[in-house]
Amino acid sequence: MTKKHKKQDKHDKVGSGADSAGGAATPRSDGATPSDRSLSREEYEAQLHVLQVELVKLQRHFIRCQDRILVVLEGRDAAGKDGSIKRIVEYLSPRETRVVALGKPSDRERSGWYFQRYVPHLPVAEELVLFNRSWYNRAGVEHVMGFCTKEQHEEFMHSVPKFEEMLVGSGIKLLKYYLDVSKDEQVKRLEERRRDPLKQWKSSPIDAVAVKHWKAYSAARDAMLMRTHTATAPWRIVRADNKRLARLNLMRDILSRLHYAGRKDKLVRPDPDIVFVFSPDCLEAGRLAR
Predict the structure, then answer these.
(1) What is the mean pLDDT of residues 90-116?
(2) Cα dihedral: 147, 148, 154, 155 (round 10)
(3) CB 210 within 8 A of CB 191
């Protein structure tokens, strides 16, 4: 782990879910608890190192096999997507690893097929590509903020399962994750982002209304998960109030779903209280932040 990331992880304080000394996890605002224990910084760094070694082994394997891997990370603002991606790619080869975080579309892109701007960024043989937000912008921020019409939103929801079926059918290994964070934790992180001069580049006008539109984003999330969770391209939920546990278990889940030589299943088994497959029961049982 680099000095930069050690410093950053020290100040993460594991979100509001735990303190840096490894105390008990604090229940979420919805009454659920992401884990019955927390990690000290030393435990976290040790486990992170082991999983990063496994990711390097995975990369050697998929380069040798010419696999194409696509990881989609979605979630509310300040859910921890940036930090998770940084730890995943830290020691991977930059030639075969790409992180895609597209800005708002140009006028030309808005006039084209919605998925067209994403297609050039899809992985080719030997590549791992991580989308830090993806085409699911249309199901979330575009829909909530009125950046697309109701008709465009409905067309997207109808088309995306077919689009993803084409990707998987072409040989791309597609992994979709939604990082779920409680309202209290989002408020805390957005405030820290505004105060921290090293994180102010993350701030945007959308941040200012993210909490205001909390219920609308919850409804949009639920509709997205219900309509785009398929057997071909299922969603995994990552409970992300505890940053360290979320990162480690996200990495474990990715490793557990992709075959590579020398994989130790016990080592890469995620905590099912933190990472789990979406189902309608998750909503009914209140396993996602409300």
Answers:
(1) 97
(2) -130
(3) no
On the CB side of 55, CA atoms within 13 Å amount to 25
Instruction: Please name every residue paired with 177 in a beta bridge, in sequence order, or none if there are none.
Output: 73, 236
Helix crossing, 41-65 with 81-89: angle to 10°?
A: 60
- What tokens were used for 235? 């969603």
- Spell out the domain ranges in the chain: 3-284
Between the alpha carbon of residue 209 and those of residues 130, 188, 206, the distances in Å are: 26, 14, 6
Q: How far is residue 93 from each of residues 57, 126, 233, measured CA to CA in Å? A: 11, 11, 26
* CA 126 to each of CA 60, 168, 274, 275: distance values in angstroms, whole numbers, following the listed order: 9, 16, 30, 27
Query: Does the domain spanning 3-284 belong to CATH 2.40.110.10?
Result: no
The angle at the Cα of 76, spanning 70 to 82, to the nearest 5 degrees, equals 55
Residue environment code for 69-80, b if the CB has 16+ CB neighbours within 10 A, otherwise e? bbbbbbbbbbbb
Token pair listed for 289: 């932040």
pLDDT of residue 126: 98
pLDDT-based confidence at residue 9 (cuts at 50, 70, 90): low
Structure tokens at 156: 């997207």
147 versus 28: which is more confidently predicted? 147
* Rounded (10°) angle between helices 243-257 and 81-89: 50
Could you report the per-residue pLDDT of 59-85, keeping only the tens digit for each?
999 999 999 999 999 999 999 999 999
**Sheet of strand 97-100: strand arrangement:** 97-100, 127-132, 68-75, 172-180, 235-239, 275-277
Query: How is 152-166 classified by DSSP, letter by letter?
Result: HHHHHHHHHHHHHHH
pLDDT tens digits for range 155-207: 999 999 999 999 999 999 999 999 999 999 999 999 999 899 888 888 777 77
